[in-house]
Amino acid sequence: VAFDCSEFGNGSCPENDKSLGIRTAMYLFISGAIFITIFGNLAMIISISYFKQLHSPTNFLILSMAITDFLLGFSIMPYSMIRSVENCWYFGILFCKIHYSFDLMLSITSIFHLCSVAIDRFYAICYPLHYSTKMTISAVKRLLLFCWSIPGTFAFGVVFSEAYADGIEGYDVLVACSSSCPVMFNKLWGTTLCMAGFFTPSSVMIGIYGKIFAVSKKHARAINTIPENQNSQMKKEKKAAKTLGIVMGFFLFCWFPCFFTILLDPYLNFSTPSVLFDALTWFGYFNSTFNPLIYGFFYPWFRKALKYILLGKIFNSHFQNANLFTQKESE
Fold first, then answer.
1. Which residues form the G-protein coupled receptors family 1 profile domain (predicted)?
2. This prediction's pTM
């Protein structure tokens, strides 16, 4: 089918209105963020995989979440950087769909992981006596299968079937003529994506953490009546819940504007400026950049593991049993 592309410049890239200085600054800034995203999350992956002391159900969930952030930095952010700086998509329509499918899958996978971590913390703090029987390695494997398979099936199915664009007037012309890798969600799929992939799991997480902190307050009041060893374990679990609650809060803060815009855009006749949507997408991406920094700030064991990695000590197999916790943290 031949389309009149005169309105879109015959599919060629529009002249870039950014000066060389601005483009250079953007490349340097975003490349720095990509570097932190890739190597920060790679350090987390190596730490949890290598050190036996870190092999726990909670940490396996964090490991999988770090893999999600690593993949976003490695396979999504570099191409998005070129598109954002050059105001053009150079990689063809097929790779545009693959890129967007992975992008969508990884963002939904992240929030599903955060939900799983919230469930893990819920059992650890609210039902500590049942935790070891509920959060077994096989239970974690089932959670991880769910976290990866459902978003993957949804993202690739919706994008490659182009169901998301049904009923959008002129979308075929836009795809054939535009040079920007356009993806626009209609009202049905925009609402489905945002409700099932973001707002519902967000509400579940907020509810779970609300319950966790209510129980934590109750524990704090009863702290003097609890045996010392149980008391120290509860403090450790609460600290982990607090840290992961911060990770969850930061995720919601970074991704809410983007998902909210996807939800509203079809009802506003797709009038959201592309530069705004691009900026909100990057705001979401930077969540994957900040996650290893949050871990580094709140987890002394991660800082210690990172030191061993940078010193090359992990090449000695006996370091797998190294103690990463100080006496204070163990208590």
1. 40-295
2. 0.88
